């Protein structure tokens, strides 16, 4: 027994027994969709938005999720409760299910739904204080008319390849451009730049996932009086920006202090980035779905 419960198509099973068929088309072809979600002190941050994106991704690839949104919401909350978690990371995976060796999804009759919740090792505090370094990479972001980056599919090879390029360049994250040279995003996060007090992020149609954190930061920034523009920009604009930061479920809001060996600003996290990170952290424990009724919460170890 591992003491960790995984939801696997209808039942909660021990982690060691949570296995799927090698004929699952998620395994054979990356045919499926997923979400990565965070729990902050018993609050599943923006669960509704994550579920909407999951269902939209599934619709786009004609994958039927065999639950209503509300049912899946309950399953996700129950997986967190069953594992007695307070601050955690949740992975929801819906694969096409088991079929034959051919790629035609018609052979798969039962989509598989998996929910994993585990304790989260937060990014080290030092990383937020020092910021991260980026390198632009040679692999371009998938074209939206080939494999839409807005679909959060199980096919993450585009992202994996650029992550490897970033590792080879000795930096923390990749800066991905689209086939026309416009900035799109990182391997697993959205990008923002700040110039003369205005905040810019690429429109998602250029080739980016519509990040839940991205949208939350746009809203928060506007609430705090910043002007935010969703406009195309190039690598040059990133080089000469006053501030650059990344957003994502894992990264939250993290400063970029170097891009292709050019220092961003004075080489340390900027004031706008720090402000938005602190405002973001204020809402993560309340804006979402509470897992534990307040009485029970205190009893969770
Ligand atoms: N872009 C990509 C390619 C990602 O995988 C992620 C992580 N889900 C993001 C951006 C950030 O999205 P979110 O804020 O929803 O985590």
From TrEMBL:
Pathway: Amino-acid biosynthesis; L-isoleucine biosynthesis; L-isoleucine from 2-oxobutanoate: step 4/4; Amino-acid biosynthesis; L-leucine biosynthesis; L-leucine from 3-methyl-2-oxobutanoate: step 4/4; Amino-acid biosynthesis; L-valine biosynthesis; L-valine from pyruvate: step 4/4. It catalyses: L-leucine + 2-oxoglutarate = 4-methyl-2-oxopentanoate + L-glutamate; L-valine + 2-oxoglutarate = 3-methyl-2-oxobutanoate + L-glutamate; L-isoleucine + 2-oxoglutarate = (S)-3-methyl-2-oxopentanoate + L-glutamate. Keywords: Amino-acid biosynthesis, Aminotransferase, Branched-chain amino acid biosynthesis, Pyridoxal phosphate, Transferase. Gene3D superfamilies: 3.30.470.10, D-amino Acid Aminotransferase, subunit A, domain 2. Its cofactor is pyridoxal 5'-phosphate. PANTHER family: AMINO-ACID AMINOTRANSFERASE (PTHR42743), AMINODEOXYCHORISMATE LYASE (PTHR42743:SF11). This is Branched-chain-amino-acid aminotransferase. The lineage of its organism: Bacteria, Bacillati, Bacillota, Bacilli, Bacillales.
